[in-house]
Design goal:
This protein is mainly α. It has seven helices and two strands. It has two domains: 46 residues, no CATH class; 138 residues, no CATH class. 52% of the residues lie in helices and 5% in strands. The chain has a two-stranded antiparallel ribbon with strand order 1-2.
Length: 201
């Protein structure tokens, strides 16, 4: 095996480890990492202590429209777009970095991570397939995940118009709508920009 191929394999193993730690499923690993299925399964078992979960990936845009899921999904996707357009990351690195930043921001404020890595990746695919879009709230100006081809005129986000029981059924770590009409996506983006700049990307 040549030096180049050895280094290449090391990078693939490092990528696989990073993705597994974020919660990537085997189907995603097989599509993004240049290692055999058997090698990926062994890595997964070594890191997680269990076999990779089986079953189909989620295939419904409706999940992203519920109150809390929409807030978290919108936060993540705005960060993902920032990584692509402003930080000039590749789609895969943008996915990894924006998901890490999403988790850091949620956990720093005592919240719980609602959007797992699989749903984050699936949402990106939904956008690429023109099944979802970002709509701008007519009240706060934030950009939120919405069904593709929905009327954007007069759109009001889930923060400015929360359902009556929003946040009431969750435990102490629930994420409630802020009192001011400031979009979650804009808040996170404001924090993300100096962090990206500091990292040199």
């Amino acid at each position: 095996m040549t030096k180049k191929s050895v280094l290449g394999e090391v990078r693939e193993v490092q990528l696989a480890i990073e993705l597994i730690e974020l919660g990537a499923r085997l189907q995603f690993l097989e599509s993004e990492v240049g290692l055999s299925r058997e090698r990926l399964i062994r890595l997964y078992k070594e890191l997680k202590g269990v076999s990779p979960p089986k079953g189909l990936l989620p295939f419904s845009t409706d999940w992203y429209m519920t109150w809390l899921a929409n807030i978290h999904s919108s936060m993540f996707y705005n960060m993902y777009r920032f990584m692509l357009e402003e930080a000039d990351e590749t789609p895969l690195r943008a996915l990894i970095k924006s998901y890490r930043l999403y988790m850091e921001q949620i956990e720093a404020h005592g919240g719980e991570v609602v959007l797992d890595f699989t749903r984050a990746y699936t949402m990106v695919r939904f956008f690429e397939s023109d099944m979802l879009q970002l709509s701008t709230c007519s009240r706060c100006g934030g950009r939120f995940v919405a069904h593709a081809h929905d009327n954007k005129h007069g759109y009001v986000c889930v923060l400015c118009r929360p359902p009556s029981r929003a946040g009431k059924a969750r435990g102490p770590k629930r994420v409630e709508a802020p009192a001011e009409s400031e979009s979650a996506s804009d808040t996170v983006l404001a924090r993300a920009q100096p962090q990206v700049a500091a990292s040199g990307h």
